[in-house]
Design brief:
about 100 residues, 4 strands, about 10% helix, mainly beta, single chain, 4-stranded antiparallel sheet
Length: about 100
């Protein structure tokens, strides 16, 4: 990895388990961001911009979520941290299954 890289994302995919089957919100996204560089993520409503951002930051809930690929955030020139790599949640827990009527 180059010392001037700030963010590396490789083959990142985020999939949600739903009652109707798996829904892939982000599929095979790869990019890198150098220091002093700006990257804009644009797309239509519902295209996965927020899911991508939350996955990279490690803020995407793990329930019913599968994340594959990796994102590496360079905190400094001497340290890199792999945020997620082939993370998979356990058994699905449906939000509506715990509701009382």
């Amino acid at each position: 990895m180059s010392d001037d890289k700030l963010l590396l994302v490789k083959d990142l995919t985020t999939t949600f388990a739903t009652a109707g089957g798996d829904l892939t919100a982000v599929a095979h996204v790869s990019f890198d961001l150098d220091r002093n560089e700006t990257l804009g993520i644009v797309g239509e409503s519902g295209s996965g911009k927020t899911v991508l951002s939350r996955t990279i930051m490690g803020l995407q809930p793990r329930v019913n979520t599968t994340v594959t690929g990796s994102s590496v955030i360079m905190a400094s020139k001497s340290s890199a941290r792999v945020r997620r790599r082939s993370v998979q949640s356990g058994a699905p827990k449906w939000p509506w299954s715990s509701r009382t009527r």
